[in-house]
Prior knowledge:
The structure is a homodimer. By secondary structure, chain A is α/β, with parallel strands linked by helices. Chain A has 14 helices and 12 strands. Chain A has 3 domains: 43 residues, no CATH class; 128 residues, Response regulator (Rossmann fold, 3-Layer(aba) Sandwich), CATH 3.40.50.2300; 151 residues, Rossmann fold, CATH 3.40.50.2300. In chain A, the strands form 3 sheets. Chain A has a 6-stranded parallel sheet with strand order 2-1-3-4-5-11, covered by helices on one side. A 4-stranded parallel sheet of chain A has the order 7-6-8-9, sandwiched between helices. In chain A, strands 10-12 form a two-stranded antiparallel ribbon. Chain A is elongated and about 90 Å long. β2 of chain A pairs antiparallel with β2 of chain B, so a sheet runs across the interface. The structure holds a DNA duplex.
Amino acid sequence: MSPAQRHPTLADVAERAGVSPSTVSRTLRGLSVSTKVRSRVEEAARELNFAISRQASSLVTGRTGVMAVLVPTLDSWFMGAALSSLGPLLRGAGMELTVYVVPDLAERAAFFERLPARRNADALLVFSFDLSEEETARLDDLGMPVIYISQHVEGRPSVYVDDVAGARKATRHLINLGHRRIAFAHTVNARGFTFSSRERLVGYQQALTEADIPLDHDLIVTTPPRDKRGTTQAVGNLLSLREPPTAIFAEQDELAASIVSTLRAVQIEVPQRISVLGFDDQLMAEWLDLSSVAQSPSDMGRAAAELALALINDPESDRGRHVVLPTHLIPRGSTAAPPASHREQERSN
Amino acid sequence: MSPAQRHPTLADVAERAGVSPSTVSRTLRGLSVSTKVRSRVEEAARELNFAISRQASSLVTGRTGVMAVLVPTLDSWFMGAALSSLGPLLRGAGMELTVYVVPDLAERAAFFERLPARRNADALLVFSFDLSEEETARLDDLGMPVIYISQHVEGRPSVYVDDVAGARKATRHLINLGHRRIAFAHTVNARGFTFSSRERLVGYQQALTEADIPLDHDLIVTTPPRDKRGTTQAVGNLLSLREPPTAIFAEQDELAASIVSTLRAVQIEVPQRISVLGFDDQLMAEWLDLSSVAQSPSDMGRAAAELALALINDPESDRGRHVVLPTHLIPRGSTAAPPASHREQERSN
DNA sequence: AGCAGGCGTGACAGCGCTGTCAAAATGGGT
DNA sequence: ACCCATTTTGACAGCGCTGTCACGCCTGCT
């Protein structure tokens, strides 16, 4: 009950079990001990409510038993799903998870300046950051495996989806429905476009080029993330074009959702007047009946953690190995053929 | 570059700076040293890329510099927002965040059996679990402050919103709009109803009682979380009543969203035919134009972390203190007056 | 009975840091 | 120039654990 009581140490267990500390250590680590001693030690440990001090053991083994992750935020579908999936894997490996949340540029600079993970983790998972050359280099000599998730970093182990292919599928779906004026809505933050964001734009462009649809830069609009006003402006820019789009491909579901809500607010029916397509296939895409491109953050998380564990055990194993995961188009009710007028126009084209 | 190189130690820094290890330690901890020595040490540390080993220092200080959190999942709006808000606070206190994700009953049993956080953290934040007496008792002698978030635990520091008041506001809003047949949709998981869930039901019942509307247990439906089929069944049960509800108050936004999508799928217009009201006011409530009751997980996270930090510094400070945060009704387009027929009926009642 | 071989166990040092205490350096007043 | 009060620095032990090594004991053999 008393909260300030001293935690029992391995020596306490040893005394109670009538053996040496070494033996307790061996028992707890699963090394060979006689069954008689093992049971005595285990009982003593249970009675004392003993939990080993990672600090002390890592001091001597050099292993911290910690997997560190660097994330821009946890307040996102992607991070949540990816990190949740790590749980069982890490527990299986007897590791704990420490999270560095680095939301803005100042915190980011501080993180790279101090590199607090150094010496305090066995591996680092870096999520969805667009790192500069210097930052990557800095992580290189962190002295532990570093895995990049949702970004492709040359020569370093990375796990990501094929954003280009996904965006191409999405765009082709719209083209196949008969659209030719297809907008691309881009998210931009203080650091500029993210890796995925740029890749998805490339996929969009590739699909248009394949279909001999000329690129129109007026159809590419940008907005800050989760910014209602920015979305409204971006949609406004599209609606005020001489020839407005009949479909909008948003680089993320959240942006797509925001666009749908903006369009509905001005009585533009989705998908009758304008089709909207997202990317991510978050849970809410289903509620919104939003067509989207699915990716699996939990698969990415697991793949990254497995890579990390492999590299911890054998630093030379697969350095620089990349894992590229697939995407899947999930057609739903927010995409349909363009209005008849446009279809005529296109056909006669 | 070489990943297996030995990390520099405090002694290395001392040698380079031409001082003793003690002095380096003092410098790095911000204790008083001459300005000349301070700059020499800091330069040496920078040159060697020195990062202190928490393991070693916590071994002697007894402080781990770690805030542990116990969460059922990270894949939820609430956890994401709450945990993200901890970042700056913890960094300010020089602490790291380690997360224990305990998704199911087996993992939960294992966590309480082994209590891995013991000795490896300075405080524990427990999120939205409904703990049994034994579990709470077990946490009591963890030897560190334990703060409960989004649940009210008798005699222990807890941070939560006033769910009863929030649900009452929500229900009154529907009553004020003219509804009298108001359903309550409840989420139930393997462990039964959550604390919040039960509290919200109480608020719903209180509001009905206040308005002299008789309770009808057929109007209270349950479904597992994030279960499309369960939601469909629950909605089906309501629609097949002799006197179906004109409004549904869902205990969570996600459930509300799912209900709206189920209703729309069968051409029942929201809010014209049935009003739907959620709880949480997640981001997506705005996209869906869903009326909801707002709570702030980031405020809760911050309040909890502050409490924890205070208790770490002075274990006797405010034990058992509770922080109750407010909720706010956010009326949007998913709630409206009931259809005229019902209104007549009610008026003449 | 005596001895090699093997397994199980204990003694001990040391991982990298901090807290204590004593020693050295500094500065101000006479 | 000297002394005392004060600040600044260094030596050293020890936090709780693990890895190494050596020792004791039990088997099974000659």
